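can u do me a favor
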């Protein structure tokens, strides 16, 4: 969940390197840097999922998790971050992100992961895209909890674009 800070650092570096006259080149560099960071995130978490000895290195949940539960949390994080990256890159709009999150939150494991990682999101810059997505997810989860229907696909009010 440190993607926002890394993107800001990369932007400052690009500005120093390319300056205002090379906006297209800088934007392309940032796009490639984000794609590389997303691949690295996937690879690092995949290694942790595959090897419990590596997973404990990034276990900052503050809970006594079994190796199986830790793997589930890491996998849930991959699904959430996948939806976040799709939204951040413009491949999903807010309504589509909302629908994707609504589907993810049908899993009790995903909901448990979300509840137990709430402190991780508390330190996000409130104006960041990541915090915005977190607020959408929090609102949706509350609406799911309060819903009086088994028709989960209609629960919640999608955000207006």
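np, heres the sequence
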């Amino acid at each position: 969940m440190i993607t926002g800070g890394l993107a800001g650092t990369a932007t400052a570096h690009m500005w120093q390197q390319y300056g205002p006259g090379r906006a297209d080149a800088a934007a392309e560099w940032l796009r490639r840097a984000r794609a590389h960071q997303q691949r690295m995130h996937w690879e690092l978490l995949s290694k942790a999922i595959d090897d419990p000895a590596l997973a404990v290195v990034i276990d900052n949940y503050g809970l006594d998790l079994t190796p199986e539960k830790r793997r589930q949390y890491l996998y849930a994080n991959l699904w959430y971050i996948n939806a976040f990256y799709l939204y951040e890159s413009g491949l999903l709009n807010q309504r589509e992100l909302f629908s994707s999150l609504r589907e993810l939150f049908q899993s009790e494991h995903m909901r448990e992961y979300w509840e137990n990682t709430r402190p991780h999101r508390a330190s996000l810059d409130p104006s960041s895209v990541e915090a915005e997505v977190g607020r959408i997810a929090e609102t949706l989860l509350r609406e799911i909890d309060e819903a009086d229907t088994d028709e989960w696909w209609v629960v919640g009010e999608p955000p207006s674009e």
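The chain has a mean pLDDT of 85. hope that helps!!
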